[in-house]
Structure formats: structure tokens, C-alpha cells
Design a protein that fits this description.
By secondary structure, the protein is an alpha+beta fold. Among the domains are: about 210 residues, Rossmann fold; about 110 residues, P-loop containing nucleotide triphosphate hydrolases (Rossmann fold), CATH 3.40.50.300; about 210 residues, Orthogonal Bundle (Helix Hairpins), CATH 1.10.287; about 120 residues. It is built from 21 helices and 17 strands. The strands form four sheets. Strands 2-1-4-5-8-9 form a six-stranded antiparallel β-sheet, covered by helices on one side. Strands 10-14-15-3-16-17 form a six-stranded mixed β-sheet. β1 and β2 form a beta hairpin. The radius of gyration is 63 Å and the shape is flat. Keywords: Coiled coil. Pfam families: AAA_23, SbcC_Walker_B.
Length: about 1050
């Protein structure tokens, strides 16, 4: 990164707009920044740093205190920087948060911080976060790294030299892009943890399946399953043996069930056969009984046949009788209709005469209707003129009202504008308060976040410490238990060894007792026995020895398990110790206190007290935060109010101008209309100026005329209707008389035909016919009943003959004994089926458990094999090795060696070959990660020492050499980072003349490689050696800059 042009406005000691054009240097890449103290030399560095990162170069300068005290209130504070990077031009401009004068009225408003970054493509970024991220991306380093390797301000020069290993790691990671190596470390550690977790979960799953094994009556298997440390192989072996036994048991039960099924089938067939015999015998008795009941009804159905025949004869007469009765009824109705029409004709004739008289009276009123019509026409002409006069008067009244309304509205509008302007001022003051509250809230938010982070770290440490202490306590307890158990084990084992020795010696004595000289020994075959074994007092039995041996084996197995458990517990304690140590180091850093010397038990009390204090501080801060949030929450509402008020004021002022203009125009119109009204009054007499009275009289006459015409039309309509009705009724009477005469003749003929048909069908008279007459439905019912009876008798007779043949020689069967025996067999089968199902579930459960356990065992073996490789890789890569160096630091150490070599080329020259920087390779105290520690070797003493022991001048030379060496190496390796510029603020005053000459020579050589070197210094020798200067001149109006080349 090379600066092209720096523009500062109202920044630091620079009152107006001050431009530093670096293009004036041309090919001279080293220059000196000079001027009196306080003139603004360091401000040049501050401006560049602020433009890029939003912060000044020195840690003591607050970004909120950058505005110039010399600046006019109208001038805004900002910094603009044009710079070149890898052949591309970038422009960035930043405005800090500041107060500016109001556009309207007096006073100030708070202007928020702004930023604008113009990219080579022409794209513009304006969001603060987006710009900050983009700057870090294109330059390749953050603000802290920038201050350590590019722009080294006062008080910051020694930081890179004296940084801790972890701080250098962060700087080098960004520069050399070793994030992938750190990612490999994380990935390996994640894989290790995931595998360990997976194996633990899988083992838990396997234990769950083991707990689901049904041991039945196998007490040994039950004991193995319930042990804390499971013997998987033994459990699987015994479960498989139990499974074979259950399979054989189920096979035997199935054979018994098959035999019972055959017995059930045989008994079911016997019962079905007996039930069929009993059913046929019962059916024979029921059919015989039903047949006899039907034979008894034979006489009854003969009488019903006679009744059916006479009913059919009467049915022929009934057809004529029904026609006769219908026509006779019609004759009666027509007679009544004729009598009614005669009465109606008389009434119609009377109505006709009445309506004729009324019509004559209404025709006589024609002259009266004509007089009223003429009066109405005359009055309507007068009403038209009166209305014209009144409308003109009303129009003028309306205009006068509008004029007054307009005047009132203008007055209200002026008052409203005055109120809105007052509200605008009030809201502007409120917004300023909110903006101040926002700044305070941001600071409190940051403090709360930091303190809550500390609290979380302390809670984690407290939890881990408690867990660690529990494990230590458990380990102590289990160790004591193991010691007691081990004593018992050693005692029994010693007893066993004595018994075994006595047994062997006893066996030798017994053998020797029967040996004689010259007879071969059955063990070695010798015939000479110089020293025979003697019999001991009591020889233990072999069974007794075997019992003790079995007990020892059981105890040994339990002892091995206890040893494994204690070993695992010890490993967890060690792991917890490492975690606690790292956490303690982290807490020491965030709290800024040395906690490494405090005892672990005292740490809990310390954290409790410290945590309570911090919690109280957080509570107090959150109360302040809540108060500020309530204030800040109103910001949007206030801004919206200001926006609306500003718009309202503009709109209302524009409306006021329009309303005043309209008022003038309306006033002229009112004057013109009143002049026209005065002219109309001269033309119309006063008595006919009221149109309302004329209109009422017209309505009275129109209503009177309407009533006369209505009565005349009604009389006409009534007479016409009465005349039509009379003619219609008269014609209807004549037709009904003719119909009545024809109906009478037809009834007489039907009566004669009925009497003739009664005699023809064999009835004495009408009375006999009427008694024997039945309806068609009854005839059909009798026919159906007689037919059904005949068919039923025939059916029962056939059925009885068949059943008598089928049951010949058969007796009723007793079914109770057969059913009882069948129930007993079915119950036995049910019991065996339940037993078989119970055994099946055991087989299914245990077979499934065996398969799952074997499958899980295979997975565990595979995962444990992976864990043995990945776990070791993760351990070594993450620094758990002899050198305590992580994989990434191992790579960074190689880069660091090159940086140190490049730095030593200059340092040896500047120090007369006395000092050489070197990377510290010896392990330090504690367990913290190392590999990037720096020390200096003093050739005068022949010893290495820490860089912090260097004097002021020595540390300046070492820092300068290290910064230049870093720039050299970065140029070679970091393709994404271009370090073409270095700025140095003071430090040369600590050098002796010879060291100063060597330092200047190094910097001159550096600028020959194309790098821009800027130096702030008061040292006179530098002015003599460096001919290009940027002179800063202070004045009452603010400082000015001038390049002297």
C-alpha cells in the first residue's frame, strides 16, 4: 500500500482543508516529517490510520477527539486518502461523529459517523462494517497489525518485538495465510472428540442392548449383565448357549401343540355329527305339530271360498252403482250453482244503475276543472321570476360565508405554522439528547459484553473445578478401597502358593513312601534313591486347592477391572488439570491478574467473590443501559416527527400563500354579485319576490285539480266494469240452466240400468246385493290367503314325509361330555401356546441383542482403530508434544526464522555485530504453547537473554530491524499482502551517532527497493542526511504542510 494523496479537513491542528500530495516525492521514497512539538507531525500518521481503519495511529488518541479546535463551525471534520495497491487506485473518505450547525434556525445537531470507499471498479461502499471488512481484505492486515508492521507510532514501536507467542501467531497467521494449518488442527481435534464421543455413545448403546438380554434362570448371566464392568465375551457366550436351549424348548412345545390340534379336530367332528342328529329329531317334532294345526283350519277355508265367489258377482253391479252415485252428486251441485247465479244477476243489475248516476255527476264538473288549470299556469310564471331573485341573494350569502371561512382558515393556518415550528425546535433538542445517549449506550454495551464474557469464563472454570475435585475425591476413595482389596488379594494368593507347595511336597512324600532300593521310580525311572522325600503333617486336597485358585482368578479379574477404572479416572483427572490450567491462563489474561499461584481450592472462593462483584457491576451497568435504551428507542419516532414537521411547515406555508391569494379573488367576486342583485330588485315588485308562497298556492290548486280528475276517471272505470260484469253474469245463467236439464235426464237412465243388473247377477233386490258386496282389495286378500293355505299344507306334508324317513332308527345324542373334554384340550393347547410365545419372545429378544452387540463390537473396533491414529495426530498437531508446538506454529516458526534472518542482516550492522535475534527453542515454565518466542544473543557475553532486557536504543534498533525483516519476508511469500510503505514515529533520539548512521543507511537501502519510508524525528543528523522533508508549520489559524524537495 502506497499513499498518493492525503486530504485532512478540520482534523487535529489543521483548521481548514489541508492536502498532502505524496506524488510530489516522485522517485524519492524516503522523507522526514519535521516541525515543532504539537505542530501536527504525528497527526499525518493519525489521519492515514483513521482513513483506513477508523482509529488514530496511537493507542492514546480517541477517535472522538480528532476535530480541530481551530476549525470554523461551518467546516466538517473528515479525512480522505487516495492510495495505490498492486497497481490499482482506491479512495476512502471518513467523517467522524460530530456536531454541525442546523440548516434552519440556530443551534447544532449531531451528525453520525460516515464512510465512503471507492473501488477500482467504480463501485462505492458506504456501510461502516462493509468498508472495514473490505479494507482488511484488500490490505491483508487489521488495524493492530498495521500499527506493528507498517505504521509504528510513538509507544507502539516495541510491541512487535516484545509480543507474546500467541500475539505473533495471530499477526503471522493473517500475513502468511496459515489459517488452513490451524483449521487442520481444529479438524483433527474435532474428529478426535467426535470419534471419542461416538465410541462412548456406541458403548452405551451396546450396554443398553446387554441390559435388554433376558437371562431367564441363568443366575451367572444375570450377574454378568448387572456388573459395572461388563465382560462382553462371556456374556455373548452364555447368551448364545441360552438361545440354543430356548430353541430346543420351543421345538418340543410345538410338537405337543400339533398333537393337541389333532385331538381337537377329532372331538369337533364328533360334536358336529351329534348336533346334526339332535337338530333333525327336533325338526321332525316341530313339523308334525305345525301340519296338524293346518288340517284343523280346512272347514274355515271352505266358507272363505264361497264368500269369494259372491263377492266377485257383486263387483259387476258395483261398477254401474258407482257411476250412478257420481252423476247424482253432480246433479245436486249444478242445481245449487244455478240458484247462486240467479242471485248474482240481481246484484249486478243494481250496481250498474248506481255507477251510471255517479258518472253523470262527475261529467257536470268540467267547467270547474278548466278554471283551476288556468290559475295554475298564471302562478307558475310568477314563481319563475321570484326564484331567480332568491337564488341570486342566496348565492351572495354563500360567497360571504366562504369569504369569512377563508379569513378564519388563514388565521388558524398561521397559528398552526407557529406551533409546528415550536415543535420542530423541541424535537431537534430531543434528537441531540438521543444521539448522546447512543454514544453512552455503545460504551456500556461494550463493557457489559466484556464483563459477561469474564463471568462465563469464571462459571466454566468453577464448574470444571468442581468436576475435577469430585474426580480427585473419587480417585482417593477408590484408591483406598483398592489398597484394602489388594491386601486381601495378596493374602489369599500367598495362602494359595503355600497350599500348592504343601500339596506338591505331600505328593512327593507319598510317592517316596512306597519306593524301595532297586525298584524304578515312576517319575524319573531311577533305581537308586539316595534322598527320599519325607511326609509332611497335613497335605491339602486337590479340590481345596482348585477352589482357592478359582477364587483367586475371580479376585484377579475384579482387581484388573479396578486398576483399569483407576487408570481411566486418573487420565480424566490429568485431562481436567490441563483444561483448568488453560482456563486459568485465560482468566489471568482477561482479568489482568496473576492467578497461577493461587491454590485450586482458594480459586473457587476467589471466583465466587470476584463473580459477585462483577455481577453487581453488570447489574448497575444494565440499569444504566435500560435507561439509555428507553431514551434511544424514541430516536426513530423523533426523526420521523422532525421529517413530518418539516414537511408540514413547508406544505402549510405554501397553502397560506395560496389561501391569501384566493381570499383576494373571492372578495372581488362578492362585490360584483351584489351589484347584479341590486339591479334585479329594481325590476321585480316586492309582493311577488317570495317564490315559496307562490309555490304553496300552486300545490294547493294542483291537488284540488288532481282530486277532481281522479274522481271523474274512477266513475268512468266503475261504470264500465259494472256493465261488463252484468252481461257476463246474464250469459252464465243461461248456460247453467241448460246443463242442469241435461244432467237430470242422464241420472234417470242410470237408475234403470242399476236395477236391471242386480236381478241379472242373481240378487233378490238392492238390499241383498249391498250386504254381500265386498271391495277389490278384500277379494285379492281372500284369493291370496286361500292360495297360501293350500300351498302350505302341501309343503308341510312333503317335508314331514322326508324327515320321518331321515330320522328312522335315530336317538338323541348327549353332547355335554364331548364339549367338556374338548374344552380341557383347548385350555391345555392355550397354555402351551402362551408358553411357546413366551419362549419365542425370549429367543427373538436375545437373538436380536446378540446380533446388535456383535455388530456394535465390530463398529467399536473399527472406530477405536481410527481413534488410535487420529487421536495421536490431534494430540501432536495441537501442541501436546515434547516441544509444546502446534502444527500451525511449526509452520509459522519456519517463516519466523526467515524474518529473524532478514532482521539480523540489519541488526548486526546497526549494533556492530554485537546482537543477534534468535527464536527461543527451550521450553518455558508451565504448559502454555510456545514456538514463536524471541530472544537476543549478546556476542559480548556469549549468552542469550529476553528481548525485554534491551535498553531503549537497543530495543529501537531491534524493533526497526524486525519490522524491516518482516516486510522483506512478506514481500516474498504473502501474495495477498503488499508492504510497500513504512512510517516510523520517533525513537532515533535514543541512538548514538554510529548507531544512527547505521540505521539511516538501512533505511536508505530500503527505499532503493521501491518502498516509501516516512520518519518523524527531531534529531538534527537526520535533517542533514535526508534531504526530502515534509515541514509542518503551526499558526494561530491552524497548521500548514509543505514538501521541501
Amino acid at each position: 500500500m502506497k499513499p498518493i494523496k492525503l486530504t485532512m479537513s478540520a482534523f487535529g491542528p489543521y483548521a481548514g482543508e489541508e492536502i498532502v500530495d505524496f506524488t510530489k516525492l516522485k522517485h524519492k521514497n524516503i522523507f522526514l516529517i519535521t516541525g515543532p512539538t504539537g505542530a501536527g507531525k504525528t497527526t499525518i500518521f493519525d489521519a492515514i490510520s483513521y482513513a483506513l481503519y477508523g482509529e488514530a495511529s496511537g493507542s492514546s488518541r480517541d477517535k472522538d477527539c480528532l476535530r480541530s479546535d481551530f476549525a470554523s463551525p461551518d467546516i466538517l471534520t473528515y479525512v480522505k486518502l487516495d492510495f495505490e495497491l498492486r497497481g490499482k487506485i482506491y479512495t476512502i473518505c471518513r467523517f467522524p461523529q460530530q456536531e454541525r450547525k442546523k440548516v434552519r434556525g440556530e443551534g447544532y445537531v449531531l451528525k453520525n459517523a460516515e464512510v465512503e470507499l471507492v473501488l477500482p471498479s467504480g463501485d462505492i461502499l458506504t456501510r461502516v462494517n462493509a468498508v472495514d471488512e473490505k479494507i482488511s481484505e484488500i490490505i491483508g492486515i487489521n488495524k493492530n497489525q498495521f500499527k506493528q508492521i507498517v505504521m509504528i507510532p510513538q509507544g507502539e514501536f516495541r510491541k512487535l518485538l516484545e509480543s507474546e507467542s500467541s500475539e505473533r501467531e495471530i499477526i503471522f497467521r493473517k500475513i502468511f495465510g496459515t489459517e488452513s494449518f490451524e483449521a487442520i488442527q481444529r479438524k483433527l481435534d474435532e474428529k478426535k472428540k467426535n470419534l471419542y464421543k461416538k465410541i462412548s455413545v456406541t458403548k452405551t448403546e451396546r450396554d443398553t442392548h446387554i441390559k435388554h438380554i433376558d437371562p431367564s434362570d441363568d443366575e451367572i448371566l444375570l450377574k454378568l449383565i448387572n456388573e459395572n464392568y461388563l465382560n462382553i465375551t462371556e456374556i455373548l457366550t452364555r447368551t448364545k448357549d441360552l438361545l440354543k436351549m430356548h430353541l430346543q424348548e420351543r421345538k418340543n412345545i410345538k410338537k405337543e401343540i400339533e398333537q393337541l390340534d389333532m385331538d381337537i379336530e377329532r372331538f369337533q367332528k364328533d360334536i358336529m355329527k351329534g348336533e346334526e342328529i339332535n337338530r333333525n329329531i327336533k325338526e321332525k317334532e316341530e313339523v308334525q305339530k305345525e301340519y296338524n294345526s293346518y288340517i284343523l283350519k280346512e272347514e274355515e277355508f271352505k266358507n272363505k271360498k264361497v264368500k269369494l265367489e259372491r263377492g266377485r258377482d257383486a263387483l259387476q253391479v258395483k261398477i254401474i252403482e258407482d257411476t250412478y252415485k257420481h252423476r247424482k252428486s253432480n246433479l245436486k251441485i249444478k242445481k245449487l250453482q244455478y240458484e247462486e247465479i240467479e242471485d248474482k244477476l240481481k246484484k249486478s243489475e243494481k250496481n250498474l244503475l248506481t255507477y251510471k248516476e255517479i258518472l253523470q255527476k262527475e261529467e257536470d264538473k268540467e267547467i270547474e276543472r278548466k278554471i283551476i288549470w288556468d290559475a295554475i299556469v298564471n302562478l307558475k310564471n310568477q314563481e319563475k321570476k321570484a326564484k331567480e331573485y332568491e337564488q341570486k341573494g342566496l348565492a351572495i350569502l354563500s360567497l360571504r360565508k366562504k369569504l369569512q371561512d377563508k379569513k378564519d382558515f388563514i388565521k388558524e393556518l398561521k397559528l398552526f405554522i407557529k406551533d409546528e415550528k415550536k415543535k420542530f425546535e423541541e424535537n431537534s433538542k430531543k434528537l441531540l439528547d438521543v444521539q448522546r445517549a447512543e454514544i453512552s449506550k455503545e460504551k456500556i454495551d461494550r463493557v457489559i459484553y466484556e464483563k459477561e464474557f469474564i463471568i462465563n469464563e469464571m462459571r466454566n472454570f468453577y464448574r470444571n473445578t468442581e468436576e475435577y475435585m469430585k474426580k480427585v475425591s473419587k480417585h482417593t476413595k477408590e484408591s483406598k478401597n483398592f489398597e484394602e482389596f489388594n491386601k486381601e488379594y495378596i493374602s489369599i494368593r500367598s495362602k494359595y502358593e503355600i497350599m500348592e507347595d504343601n500339596f506338591r511336597r505331600g505328593q512327593a512324600g507319598l510317592l517316596a513312601k512306597n519306593l524301595k532300593e532297586g525298584i524304578q521310580c515312576p517319575v524319573c525311572g531311577a533305581t537308586h534313591h539316595p534322598k527320599l522325600a519325607t511326609l509332611i503333617g497335613e497335605v491339602p486336597a486337590e479340590k481345596e486347592i482348585n477352589d482357592v485358585k478359582n477364587k483367586i482368578n475371580i479376585l484377579k479379574e475384579e482387581r484388573d477391572k479396578k486398576i483399569t477404572y483407576l487408570s481411566d479416572l486418573n487420565g480424566m483427572i490429568k485431562n481436567n488439570e490441563e483444561i483448568l490450567l488453560n482456563m486459568r491462563e485465560k482468566l489471568s489474561t482477561v482479568l489482568g491478574e496473576d492467578l497461577m499461584s493461587i491454590k485450586i481450592t482458594d480459586m473457587l472462593q476467589y471466583i465466587t467473590v470476584k463473580g459477585k462483584n462483577i455481577s453487581i457491576e453488570i447489574k448497575e451497568l444494565k440499569e444504566k443501559q435500560s435507561e439509555l435504551i428507553k431514551i434511544v428507542e424514541n430516536k426513530f419516532v423523533i426523526e420521523e416527527n422532525l421529517k413530518k414537521l418539516d414537511e408540514n411547515i413547508k406544505n402549510k406555508e405554501e397553502s397560506l400563500q395560496n389561501e391569501e391569494k384566493n381570499y383576494t379573488e373571492l372578495y372581488g367576486k362578492v362585490e360584483s354579485e351584489e351589484e347584479v342583485l341590486r339591479g334585479i330588485e329594481k325590476e321585480i315588485p316586492e309582493e311577488i319576490r317570495c317564490a315559496n308562497k307562490i309555490s304553496l298556492r300552486i300545490k294547493e290548486l294542483e291537488n284540488e285539480l288532481k282530486d277532481l280528475e281522479k274522481n271523474y276517471k274512477l266513475a268512468q272505470d266503475n261504470y264500465s266494469k259494472a256493465n261488463i260484469e252484468y252481461a257476463s253474469v246474464k250469459a252464465d245463467k243461461e248456460a247453467k240452466l241448460k246443463n242442469l236439464q241435461e244432467e237430470f235426464k242422464e241420472v234417470e237412465l242410470l237408475n234403470e240400468k242399476l236395477n236391471s243388473k242386480i236381478k241379472q247377477c242373481g240378487f233378490k233386490d238392492y238390499h241383498e246385493y249391498n250386504e254381500l258386496k265386498i271391495g277389490e282389495d278384500e277379494i285379492k286378500s281372500l284369493q291370496h290367503e286361500i292360495l297360501q293355505y293350500s300351498e302350505k299344507v302341501h309343503s308341510l306334508k312333503d317335508r314331514l314325509e322326508r324327515i320321518l324317513k331321515d330320522t328312522e332308527g335315530l336317538k338323541e345324542v348327549c353332547l355335554e361330555d364331548l364339549k367338556k373334554t374338548l374344552e380341557e384340550i383347548v385350555l391345555k393347547k392355550q397354555q402351551l401356546s402362551e408358553k411357546e410365545l413366551h419362549v419365542f419372545w425370549k429367543i427373538n429378544n436375545n437373538d436380536k441383542a446378540i446380533k446388535e452387540i456383535e455388530k456394535i463390537n465390530k463398529n467399536i473396533m473399527e472406530d477405536e482403530e481410527k481413534y488410535s491414529v487420529i487421536g495421536e495426530l490431534a494430540r501432536v498437531a495441537n501442541g501436546d508434544n515434547r516441544e509444546r508446538i502446534t502444527f500451525e506454529r511449526y509452520v509459522l516458526a519456519a517463516y519466523f526464522n526467515e524474518i529473524i534472518n532478514a532482521a539480523n542482516l540489519r541488526l548486526t550492522k546497526m549494533t556492530g555485530d554485537r546482537f543477534v535475534l534468535k527464536r527461543k527453542e527451550e521450553k518455558g515454565k508451565g504448559r502454555k504453547q510456545e514456538g514463536l518466542e524471541l530472544e537476543v544473543f549478546d556476542n559480548y557475553t556469549g549468552k542469550a537473554r529476553h528481548v525485554k532486557t534491551l535498553s531503549g536504543g537497543e530495543s529501537f534498533k531491534a524493533s526497526l530491524a524486525l519490522a524491516l525483516g518482516l516486510a522483506d519476508v512478506v514481500q516474498c511469500y504473502a501474495g495477498g499482502i503488499s508492504l510497500d510503505t513504512i512510517f516510523i514515529d520517533e525513537g532515533f533520539g535514543t541512538l548514538d551517532p554510529e548507531s544512527l548512521d547505521n540505521a539511516i543507511e538501512c533505511l536508505i537501502n530500503l527505499q532503493k527497493g521501491g518502498r516509501l519510508v516516512g520518519i518523524i524525528s527531531h534529531v538534527p543528523e537526520l535533517k542533514e542526511r535526508i534531504d526530502v522533508r515534509l515541514e509542518i508549520t503551526p499558526a494561530k489559524e491552524g497548521s500548514k504542510t509543505t514538501f521541501i524537495i
